[in-house]
Design brief:
single chain; mainly beta; Tachylectin-2, Chain A; Immunoglobulin-like; five-stranded antiparallel sheet
Length: 471
Amino acid sequence: MKKLALLSLALIASFNICNSQPIPTDSLYLGQTPPGSTPKVFAPGIVSVSGTNENVITFSPDGTQVFFDRGVYPNRFIMQITYNNNNWSAPSMASFSIGNYPGEPSFSPNGEKMFCYLNDNIFFSQKLGTSWSGLTSIGSSINTSGYEFHPCIVNDSSLYFDSGNDGQIYRSQYQNGSYQKPVRLPSIINTGISYADAYVAPNESYLIFHSKKSGGFGDNDLYISYKKENGSWTNPKNLGNKINTPNADWDGDITPDGKYMTFSRNGDIYWVYAGFIDSLKHTNFIPYFKNQIKKQSDTVGHSFSFTIPDTTFIDDDGNNTLTYSATLSTDNSLPKWLQFNPDTKTFSGTLDSIGTFTIKVTATDTDEASVSTTFTLKVVGNPTNLIKQTFEQNIQVFPNPTKDKINISFGSLQYKSAIIEIIDMSGKLISADTYQNISTSTIDLTGNPTGIYFIGINIDGQKFNKKICIE
């Protein structure tokens, strides 16, 4: 909160430096009484007017100019209010909006340009003393034959915006006087959103956007994500039920002094104290799933070991805050032959069941917030053993014991050739016969001494024995 207060004082001071006619504190923001932590309509009857739709509002850094849009897309236009001679003017259509339908105005941090969309692309107007130029396209590196909306300029003049090609948030680096190829923000921001209308702090320390994420309060809710030291973004946090409602709450933007957030609800512009920017940063971040666990496959009878990669789950509260557990996807316990060590995140055991097992891994933080994902473990049979097992299950030798004949049934077994040998206990070959694609064979054992014999069965190269007794 101290950082936010210092930022507010610094920016109010900049109002006085940048504005040749300093605005008294009680005249800032059209002289409206500031809100607390409960949102209220901004400037009712002036900006938010009954029977119209207002969505986005932006304030110049020196506090002397206000632009907001009015109407319903695509027939929206931008209105302007100016502080002059110790008074605020009545709202009037901005000069660059006459004959056009621009929307979503946004000041650059230095106040020298005002950005907006027009004809589904991004344009800007240049400040010319006390007036403004016509609208100029931001250029083909940003604008495409698709849609580009909701521009937001940061301190180094780089641009964040919504791309209508996929509804996602992009960033374009401003370098050597031109905008570079836009880069899509990571999935932790862009998953499940469409036209999120992002506001990004001038120093890019945080980002506010709206989304219909699971666990929200209804329609679009407003969320905040913070930039981490490594340049990635934190898991977004819902701004809570004081701000978000079952209705759509969107187009969240922060005023130049960092004190208030403006946003749209039910066709009106609301504002609320922005203390949540600092306070939410110090509440628990819910862990999230980042990288899919690869499918695992091994052979029955093998010793299996697999460790969950460290990049599977992320907790923005820091390292070593997660504990792990594992079950089957049905929430039943793992098979007895498969163990899971939560300390090392490692599965181990000797695989003794053939099949595909879907395993659920859950990561839980110190506040008992959790996230889960699944992966499959496919256990296959040893090909040689499987063939042998199939043969043994299908072939029947009867009667056993026998006096003079033995019957061999191949059942439904499919094979090319079979060699049947009769071998005595000394290993002497008594007889050998070859069969092809028959289901039953009878071997005459008349004349052989009583005792124990082996029937050697060689089917398509796979060999095994069966013991018989001649009485």
